[in-house]
Amino acid sequence: MRSEEPSTSSRGFGTLDVLVTDDDEHMRELIADTVLSYGHRCRVAVDGLHALRLLAERPADLVVSDWDMPNMDGSELCRRIRSAGDDAPYTYFILLTAFGDRAHLLAGMAAGADDYQRKPVNVHELEARLVSAARVVELHRRLETRTAKLRVDSTRNFAASRTDALTGVGNRMHLDEEIATLLGRAKRYGATCSLALCDIDLFKAYNDCFGHVKGDLALRSVAESMRANLRAADALFRYGGEEFVVLLFEQPLAEAERAMDRMRLQIARLSIRSADGSPVTMSIGVAELDVAEDRTAESWIARADLALYEAKARGRNRVISSAPPRM
Ligand SMILES: [Mg+2]
User: Fold this and answer.
1) What is the reported pTM?
2) Hey, what CATH topology would domain 17-155 get?
3) CB within 5 A of ion ligand 1: which residues?
4) Identical fold at 17-155 and 172-321?
């Protein structure tokens, strides 16, 4: 058997990886020689089982298979290849049938064959079928490449649609999904989680004084500092404008309050100065999830918001915890 392996076929189509399967040695040689003369790669198998073993080692673009073979016939081989699933690369299948064997031909096409070739094999006819096989295989390859690219794009889009473009933390949509998942789980199994609503103090004045470009830079620095001071298990989101939400999973109110106070201190230590030279600070309201009371995200966030309001009223730059709803 010749074993030349050029990178493109002599007629301009891509090189095919071909598997020829026939129990008749003379027929195998004749078909393999035709395949090789077109610049394709070629392996040979003596029956369906042998072919499956070779395909398990390396898939083929094209299988040219006899119908009538010992151990496993051509239609069963085709059926096995087709049952590999949608994620497997496509294998073009040409079935060889005896001249006038209409019943076998139809059964073979029903088993998933793409084309057929009458026996005895006319080499010129076979050449024409190789050309059309190469064209279809090329189309499948392009489709597979495009599908893989779309899959990557869609993963990227999914992440981007849940990220706040300015600060890189989760956005409102991501927060809503996270809370909905948490509430669903909490109803069934219970859950401990605290939510902190964090608002940069007097940020409107900061923007008015320094402009929105510097305002955006300040927002980024604050978000960065917050993220750096949270546990890996906590989740940070931009809620809107200069407001952020922290979800502190498995953290009861008192622990969450301490964690948020540490975070608040770090922000006051950043070198972001207000118009009057004083450091930019943050007010924070914290509420622990009450599984019985908080049927919706809104009621939980509303309690954190009330606590935040109180923090502002008491002079800002502080953490206030919401009283449990049933007290
Ligand atoms: Mg045979």
Assistant:
1) 0.64
2) Rossmann fold (3.40.50)
3) 23, 66, 68-69
4) no
Say how far apart CA 181 and CA 178 lie, in whole Å: 5
Check: CB of residue 48 under 8 Å from CB of residue 71. yes
- Enumerate the domain spans of the chain: 17-155, 172-321
Question: Cα(22)–Cα(120) distance, rounded to whole angstroms?
Answer: 13
Please tell me the distance between residue 66's alpha carbon and the centre of ligand 1 in angstroms: 6
Distance in Å, CA 127 to ligand 1 centroid: 21
Length of the chain: 327
Query: Is the torsion defined by CA of 203, 180, 227, 157 positive or negative?
Result: negative
Query: Residue type for 244, please?
Result: F
Q: What is the spatial distance between Cα 46 and Cα 27, in angstroms, rounded to a whole number?
A: 11
Tokens linked to 48: 């369906």
CA torsion, ordered 125, 131, 132, 133, to nearest 10 deg: 100
Distance of alpha carbon 259 from alpha carbon 246, whole angstroms = 11
Instruction: Give the span between the Cα atoms of 285 and 302, in whole angstroms.
Output: 10
In 3-state terms, what secondary structure has residue 43? strand
Torsion of CA 129, 46, 76, 141, to 10 degrees: -40
Which of the residues are catalytic? 242
Q: How far is the CA of 104 from the centre of ligand 1 (A)?
A: 13
pLDDT tens for residues 167-203? 999 999 999 999 999 999 998 888 899 999 999 999 9
Residue 293's pLDDT is what? 86
Return the CATH fold of 172-321: Alpha-Beta Plaits (3.30.70)
Return the closest-CA partner of residue 257 out of 244, 246, 267, 266: 246
